[in-house]
Write a structure and sequence with these properties.
The structure is a single chain. Helix content is 48%, strand content 27%. The protein is flat and about 80 Å long. A 5-stranded mixed β-barrel has the order 1-2-3-5-4. The chain is an alpha+beta fold. It has 2 domains: 42 residues; 86 residues, OB fold (Dihydrolipoamide Acetyltransferase, E2P) (Beta Barrel), CATH 2.40.50.660. A hairpin with a 2-residue loop joins strand 2 and strand 3.
């Protein structure tokens, strides 16, 4: 028969092993992320691109060449990513980007962007605050003509 203290010890050991495993995995992913960012920073270049189309979908062989599609890990093939079809120089390519850059881009426009391989790092010279999607509260505040406190002060002064 297991006593309460035996069960408690078993649970604590299992929790300690789980926490250690999570720590090791997160540490490895953190190192990988730093290496990736260093690689992107070393290889990025600023180019003028014409954005043809953008979509949020799973990568397919139609989007990338066979060689590039074969290098994509199977787990990444099942995930939806932000893809931008753009004309870079004389070539039409599909670029992968982050959500915040994806939101800023508008199709059928020429923009200056930093590109590292097939990864669109950021858009240069665009005010992100103006381009990002506004919430309902932000849109409603555009219709307010002035500050309510100032309006109240004007009424009191009269």
């Amino acid at each position: 028969m297991l006593s309460a203290s035996d069960i408690f010890i078993i649970v604590m050991v299992v929790l300690a092993v789980a926490i250690f495993a999570i720590y090791k995995l997160s540490n490895r992913n953190y190192r990988r992320n730093i290496e990736t960012q260093d690689f992107i920073e070393a290889n990025k270049q600023t180019l003028s691109i014409y954005v043809i189309d953008k979509k949020f979908a799973k990568p397919t062989e139609n989007d990338f060449s066979r060689q590039i599609y074969a290098q994509i890990p199977p787990s990444a093939r099942k995930r939806k990513v932000c893809m931008v079809r753009a004309k870079v120089g004389a070539q039409i390519v599909t670029l992968i980007t982050d959500k915040n850059v994806y939101d800023v881009l508008t199709p059928k426009k020429t923009v200056k962007a930093e590109i590292s391989g097939l990864y669109l790092v950021k858009v240069v010279g665009v005010n992100l605050a103006d381009k990002k999607k506004k919430t309902l509260k932000e849109r409603m505040s555009l219709f307010v003509k002035s500050d309510p406190k100032k309006e109240a002060e004007k009424i009191v002064k009269k």
